[in-house]
Amino acid sequence: MAVADERPTPLSDEDRLAELGYRQELHRTWSGFSNFAISFSIISILAGCFTTFAQAWNNGGPIAISLGWPLISVFILIIGLCLAEMGSAYPTAGGIYWWAARLGGPAAGFYTGWLNLVGLVAVTASVVYACAGFWNITLTLFWSGWADTFGGDALNQQFFWFIVLMIVVSVLNIFSSHLLALINNVSAGWHVVGAAVIIVVLLVASKGHQDASFIFTERINNSGFSDSSLSFWFYVLPLGFLLTQYTITGFDASAHMSEETAGASRAVARGIWQSIFYSAIGGWLLLLAFLWAAKDVGFINSPDNGYGVGSVIAIFSSALSPVLFKLVMVIATIGQVFCGIAAMTSLSRMSFAFSRDGAVPGKKIWSKVSPTTGVPVNAVLGGAAAGVIITLPALYKSPAGIPVAFYAVVSVAVIGLYLAFVIPIFYRLKAGATFQPGPWNLGKNYRWMNVVAAVEIVVISIYFCLPIVPSGVPFSDGFTWFDVNYAPIITGAVLLGITIWWFASARRWFTGPRRTIDEEPLTEPATPGAV
Fold first, then answer.
1. C-beta separation of 122 from 406 below 8 A
2. How far apart are CA 519 and CA 360, in angstroms?
3. Using CB atoms within 10 A as the burial measure, which of 29, 138, 217, 361 is most buried?
4. Strand, coil or helix: what is 96?
5. pLDDT digits (tens, 9 = 90+) for 154-203
6. Please, which residues bridge with residue 151 across strands?
7. Taking a C-beta distance cutoff of 8 angstroms, is the pair 76, 424 a contact?
8. At what angle do helices 106-142 and 404-431 cross, to 10 degrees?
9. pLDDT by residue (tens digit) across 86-113?
10. Is-contact 367 382, C-beta < 8 A?
């Protein structure tokens, strides 16, 4: 990846942070690899490729996966490169919102921060909830008696594990920043080795396999929407792209860990774009292996397969022996736990930074850092509680048999995060040559890259607000509120709330990033060796 300039960083991390207005409060214990590892873990091809596979299978089929994944990955990489440039210039925990405020003013920062915060809450909630589903099924494979708990209701079983896993994820996030760096390092290794093992198992041990024609040309439409060419290519298939757009997200975590990373001006930029690049390649190989093993299409498309129409678990169940089926499920489930841990870390750091600048009610609570662990413990606990609250609609079962509530939370995550990304991207483009780049930058390529990134974000944000199933289309026959995609409702409510708050109050007191370098420290900074 070519950049225009790769000069030595003239300032130390602490000096550069002080220049940006902040005192070193968080413990700078993360290496460049750890910074890459957290974004790589949140992207998590062992999470998104598994949990939203059915969305692409049912909305387009193999072509939405084999061709849609690399196509959308290219656009996401361009978005990541645009963000990486700003991450190098402004290595702060506020990340996306801080860049927007610096380049576009307080209002831009306020809107970006709240969109980013809502998106991160939704990402964390969706990852942990999906992991709970995999955990629930995996446990049943080893202990059949579990299937009878909660009256045999899988939805209640999954929500139970969702609460348990959210507690586990939160507890692991409050011990120390150093421990989290170690966990993410292990997570990166687990994802690489685990994905490789699954690919080999599917290629070598599957009971049958598909040919290249099926993998790259087959169309499937289980959405319930019209299968006409116009409907399929311009509505159904783009809905299937949610698989890629959701999986490869959360890479702003590298920016949120800036103040805990050594050599942040370079490491953050590389952490962002490299996590996208390697996840795109690894995820594509993994998905091709899924399609290779998807021989029993009738079983996969059956609502009676026990796992849901189009579920990747139905592929494993039909293609592998019981022992290998269990192995694949264990690898994926543990990978998803790692993903949830990393997502919570990113959420808590963004919440800490945004609160530090006075934008979040109860700012003193959420911006408080434990002097012992160097972790914003209250921000972790608050993020967990918010994640549980927005996932409560998942307790309602859709008559269509599709986890609409889960896909809505996923859509909220995608829309919130990517709308937050587009604001600083727009202002970076507007700044032009007046932008002062960091040691890693795009040179003149920023012009076309920022334009492409902004257009892609606008397009996908519109698509993911649309109904997911016909019964979710207002005023249509068979309409039910159970199947409504409430992503636009939540996103619209957030935007409306931000606007009212801004004009009624916030514009008079929120001035954007504030300087803490001259204030009395709340914690004693420490700089142990990087991990």
1. no
2. 19
3. 29
4. helix
5. 888 989 999 999 999 999 999 877 788 889 899 999 999 999 999 999 99
6. none
7. no
8. 150
9. 999 999 887 898 999 999 999 999 999 9
10. no
